[in-house]
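Person: I have long wanted to understand how a fold can be written as tokens. Underneath my words sits a plain record pairing an amino acid chain with its backbone structure tokens. Those tokens are not coordinates but codes from a learned vocabulary of shapes. I should like you to check that the lines agree and flag anything odd. The protein I mean follows directly.
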Amino acid sequence: MTMTKTDDERLPPVASMDALVRAIHAASGRDGEWPLVLERLGDRLGARIVTLGHHEFASGSDSSVVVSSGGADFAQDMTAYAARNPWFLSSGDYVAGRVLTGDELIGNGELRRTDFYRGFLRPRGLLHLLCGVVAQRPHGAHLLSAYRAEDEPPFDADAKAELARLLDHVTLALENAWRWREADDLAHALLALTDQDAHAAILVTADGEPVHRNPAAERLLEQRIGLRLEGSRLVAASPADRRLLADTIARVAQMDPAQAPAAPGVLTLACTPPMPPVVAVVRAAGPVYARQTGVRRGLAMVAVRGGHAAHDPATCAFARQYELTAAQAKVSALVFAGQPLSTIAHSLSLSENTVRSHLRQIFQKTDTHGQMELVHLHARVCPTLP
């Protein structure tokens, strides 16, 4: 980021070092405040321009983390001259935490003979550099740089000591901001994947409060297919299923999958007839920090698979596990899809009595005693149904 100022645009200097330190740490959570921090830092160091940017030594490229109003031209031209900047001849000089001046890297007489000075520094009346290495990277470094005019004295030991006292605070503030931004971007990227899923997915707290839901879940909740929102809580659409869903979410959300893999909770949720029931698979998402309460809380992902979902009996793990015949596997898959016996008989070109006979044999092999119990068991064996 870059901050430049003219004599009539200077902000009042910071009253104390403590005030500047507080401003630096406050900016860690608000990028928009960094230009003001750099402005005040420039006042304290007696600098005309202060920048916060990144230099890539391998390519010679230079970029600003943020460009403030009034500093766009400086940052843009610095980027154009970065590969010819003699202050960056050696990456070994830029060790994290180090504070150095430009004349420690190259003498002013030699600097004046470079294209960088003639094309970039001199037109702006600049010559002197004070630089603090905020962070070192494998191929580059993040730098806090202050510039003085050619007709001003170079930065002295007092200015170096002043920047050294502030550099640790700048580094800590930026590292915190980068970590939070990285975590936030990663969370958004992962949640965006669920948005592309054709099936409903809802991330909830242990008490059923939705944290995120994908578009498919929005549609499901609007139509109250197996689930609905009651105030700010996710509940089963059928009153008979509510306690079971709430207890399952509360139990699964307390599990930490990083410590031990946990079996998902699988529920069959009734829908308004003639719509078939849906299967909800509740998986532990692990504990996350809640800034409102200052403690970690468990989350669970509720994934909903509707009866309309296609399910190939030829590749069904449930059919293999219970050694169902091909005909029995087809009947089981259609029962799982919520089809009534008459529809199953019609689609398989069988009589209803034959379908009932297959179903009795399936009940016997799976030790189940009804279609809903069979659907529930099927979902447990095939929790990743499409």
